[in-house]
Specification:
Layout lengths: L6 H71 L4 H14 L5 E6 L11 E6 L6 E6 L10 H9 L3 E2 L3 E2 L7 E10 L5 E10 H9 L8 E5 L5 E3 L11 H7 L4 H10 L4 E6 L4 E8 L5 E7 H4 L1 H32 L1 H14 L15 H47 L10 E8 L7 E8 L2 E9 L3 H19 L5 H13 L8 E9 L4 E7 L5 E3 L5 E3 L19 E4 L4 E6 L1 H4 L10 H10 L7 H16 L8 E8 L9
Antiparallel strand pairs: 1-2, 1-7, 2-3, 4-6, 5-6, 6-7, 8-9, 8-12, 10-11, 11-12, 13-22, 14-15, 15-16, 16-17, 17-20, 18-19, 18-21, 21-22
Helix pairs in contact: 1-2, 1-8, 5-6, 9-10, 10-11, 11-12
Length: about 650
């Protein structure tokens, strides 16, 4: 049996879905908490790594600065001793592994009148040997270089921006420069110490809290001092890299670096969610450590995958376990359903299984037993009722046939009149009627609508039709015809039923029509030019209410080609499913669009079809009666 049809499997599935939903909710909340905690821990770890790196770099910077500060007095005391001056930078390089070069550069002419005097000691980048040379000359005008000019102008120690030293150390370096002053405070030279950027780059590259994390170091002007891509060092700035990124946060980070600020910002690192922690150095440089979320959450992703697999296995075990337990507990329900199915197939004497429990199953068993007995009782009663209803429906069918047979079915031309009528009751029998008779060279016709529905309305309709047919044959004026019909209906009308009537008499030679409206809907008059309008009539009381009511008739001369359309309110009050009614405006619109030479039968059939299309299958709520009269003395209209 499939899961959809098996109650135990379906109930187990519901338990599984609820459990899965709860587990998913807990997993999502827990995952968000863990993600937040992991990210916070990652930021703290990264900041700690950055702080340690800054301490290491600051230690080197401090050692270099302290070493220079400790020997400047020697230069000052022996500034005229060439051998001693040359020994100072050699001692600085020899005694400090972080210093790869040093010089004492004198102002032009300050040392024994020489235009250039700058003894320089450096560590050869290739052999590692310590060498000394004299710098200065037309090809190396050191007084114009930044490491000399800026501290001289500032009058204080200064770390230069990174540069490649050609003609000196032949490597990328940064120089710490200290102005040398005489007794008067005048600057007579600069004492320097160079540090290698290669060493600094190695230190920066070693800072990797995660596999794909990397560190940047920038100078005061934004130039890269250290970068994973060595080609960018001294050749690009942090701003050029930021401009190449889609995320504008990278530019904000660059500004913070140059402003010497400390902080953390998240950004999109070319499609990878990342964050950067940054901090300044004491010499104006800045350090930034970049980490990606992919590295941070790598282990968390693995844990989530394993946890998801375990949850899936647990849910499958829960499903099959619940299915087995529920199937065992619901076995009586299966037996009850089989018994109910047997009963539904017509075996109302089927045995209902017994149960030993005293719970809802016993209640269900007793309910089925009660249902079985009730069905048997109901079937017996239904058989009796059905027989009665069949007799009643047969009688109604006969009554309908009798009622329909009372109404004229032959619509032969009467002189110059073409006419056609139809009635469609809302029930088996109804209270609408139409009739016509020819008497004294005139055509008498009417359409009526009896109050109420069903058999009483049908009986009252039959009386109305008989009275009109008898009295109309006397050839009386319309007002007198209506007065006598009204008196016939008032006689013995204890239920106070009434009928609205529009009755008319057309002289078949002249086309003059006498008419009387007894509380009925106004009829439509379609003139030969196609214009349609409702015929105004004097108000008269519906027939059957007050005896000897003074009915008033009116007269109108019909032009050749004039069409009359009589109807009951079942037409204008026909409703769609949303209770919107057909209405008089739609009826008038239909009449205005009718083909002038259409026969009376075609007009009636077309209007009825238009009403049915409007209701679009909705139940008919009232009887519908239509009668069309076409007065056309010039042309005999052929019945269709």
């Amino acid at each position: 049996m499939s899961v959809k049809k098996n109650f135990a499997s379906r109930l187990s599935l519901y338990v599984l879905l609820i459990s899965a939903g709860l587990m998913l909710f807990v997993s999502v909340v827990f995952g968000l908490f863990v993600r937040s905690a992991v990210r916070k821990s990652a930021v703290q770890l990264t900041q700690k790594e950055l702080d340690n790196a800054i301490l290491d770099i600051e230690k080197v910077i401090t050692e270099v600065e302290r070493a220079v500060d400790n020997v400047d007095w020697i230069v000052e005391q022996h500034r005229d001793d060439e051998a001693m001056v040359c020994q100072v930078p050699r001692e600085l390089v020899s005694a400090n592994p972080n210093i790869v070069g040093s010089t004492v550069a004198f102002e032009p002419g300050a040392f024994k009148g020489r235009p250039y005097f700058a003894p320089f000691t450096y560590v050869d980048a290739t052999s590692g040997e310590i060498r000394s040379i004299q710098m200065g000359g037309a090809d190396y005008d050191y007084p114009m270089l930044d490491w000399y000019q800026i501290p001289k102008l500032l009058g204080r120690p200064y770390w230069s921006e990174p540069y490649y030293d050609e003609g000196g150390g032949e490597q990328r370096m940064s120089t710490y420069s200290m102005p040398l002053k005489d007794e008067t405070g005048a600057i007579y030279g600069i004492l320097t110490a160079d540090i290698s950027l290669e060493w600094l780059s190695d230190l920066v590259r070693s800072i990797k809290p995660y596999e794909h994390s990397y560190t940047l170091m920038v100078g005061r002007n934004g130039a890269y001092i250290a970068h994973p891509d060595s080609a960018k060092v001294l050749n690009e700035t942090v701003f050029t890299s930021a401009l190449e990124m889609r995320d504008t946060t990278a530019m904000t980070i660059a500004r913070h670096l140059l402003a010497g600020e400390r902080g953390m910002l998240r950004f999109d690192n070319d499609g990878t969610d990342s964050f950067a922690v940054f901090a300044p150095l004491s010499n104006g440089w800045a350090l930034a450590l970049i980490c990606s979320d992919m590295d941070i959450f790598r282990n968390a992703y693995v844990v989530n995958f394993v946890l998801g697999a375990l949850l899936l296995l647990g849910l499958l075990g829960l499903f099959f376990g619940c299915r087995r337990i529920v199937r065992r507990q619901t076995m009586p329900i299966v037996e009850f359903s089989n018994a109910a199915l047997t009963i539904a197939k017509g075996n109302f004497k089927a045995r209902i299984p017994e149960v030993s429990t005293r719970d809802e199953l016993l209640t269900l068993r007793n309910s089925l037993d009660y249902m079985q007995r009730s069905i048997n009782d109901y079937i017996a009663e239904l058989k009796s009722t059905t027989a009665s209803n069949e007799r009643y429906e047969s009688e109604l069918s006969i009554a309908r046939d009798i009622q329909m047979s009372m109404l004229p079915k032959a619509f032969e031309l009467k002189g110059n009149c073409d006419f056609y009528a139809m009635v469609q009751p809302a029930r088996e029998v109804g209270g609408d009627l139409y009739d016509f008779i020819e008497a004294g060279g005139s055509l008498y016709f009417l359409v009526g609508d009896v109050s109420g529905k069903g058999v009483p309305a049908a009986l009252f309709m039959a009386i109305t039709r008989a009275a009109f047919r008898f009295i109309g044959a006397l050839g009386l004026p319309m007002a007198e015809v209506m007065r006598r019909v009204n008196n016939c209906l008032c006689d013995g009308n204890q239920n106070e039923m009434f009928v609205t009537i529009f009755a008319g008499k057309i002289d078949l030679k002249t086309g003059r029509m006498d008419y009387c409206n007894a509380g009925h809907n106004p009829i439509l008059v379609v003139h030969p030019d196609g214009k349609a309008a409702y015929l105004r009539a004097r108000p008269n009381l519906a027939a059957g209410l007050f005896e000897n009511f003074p009915y008033q008739d009116e007269t109108i001369d019909l032009e050749p080609g004039t069409r009359l359309v009589l109807y009951t309110d079942g037409v204008t009050e026909a409703e769609q499913a949303d209770k919107k009614q057909f209405g008089e405006d739609r009826l008038l619109e239909w009449a205005a669009g009718l083909t002038p030479d259409a026969s009376a039968k075609a007009a009636v059939i077309d209007l009825y079809a238009r009403v049915k299309r409007f209701t679009d299958g909705a139940d008919q709520n009232d009887d519908i009666t239509l009668l069309s009269v076409l007065w056309n003395p010039a042309t005999k209209t052929i019945q269709e």
